[in-house]
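WARN retry 2 of 3 for item q-0093 after timeout on previous attempt; input resubmitted unchanged.
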Amino acid sequence: MSAPDDEPLHEARLWRDNGWTAQVIKNEDDEGWAVAMYKAGESEPALVGPWTMGRDKKNPKPLDVNAFNTLVKTASEVIRRHEQQLHAQLNKALYVARDGQWTKVSLEIVPAEDDPYAWLRAHDAAGEQLAQVKVAANFRLSQSAAEQWVDAGFERPAGRD
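OK item q-0093 returned
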């Protein structure tokens, strides 16, 4: 049996379908209206934006299927960009050339709430893992740090844990 929040709902100011909810709300900053888009299971909106006034210039324009689908597409894109940005903040990769061979050195930060840490890894050109060490989450992966790690035979960087 579905929970009530899973049931499609199509009202003038509240539209719920396919895992998304659009809610038209009074804009607290001015006299207009706004729409908030929530992904199912999330307490914070993925997107809040201005909403069009109706013909009477007092009430909001009612939601409809086309507006809802556009809002879902826009909110999904906002979430996708946020995930890409977070991934870029938590993952970095550099390449080191030694003796005609390329080594990919990567850092993956694990943002654990109590004790964040990171994995420093090395892979050869075929993708085979050569080394992996746990380092502090604030480890700075630079080209020189990657080269030093490769040159030291992948020994755990000193003072980095």
